[in-house]
Amino acid sequence: MVPRRVAKQGEACGIRFEPEETIFLMFSSSCRDEAHFQNPDAYDLTRDTGPAIPFGAGPHFCAGAAASRCLVARHAVPAALAALPNLRLDGTPIFKGWAFRGPTQLPVAWDI
Ligand code: HEM
Question: Does the residue 7 lie in any domain?
Answer without folding.
Answer: yes
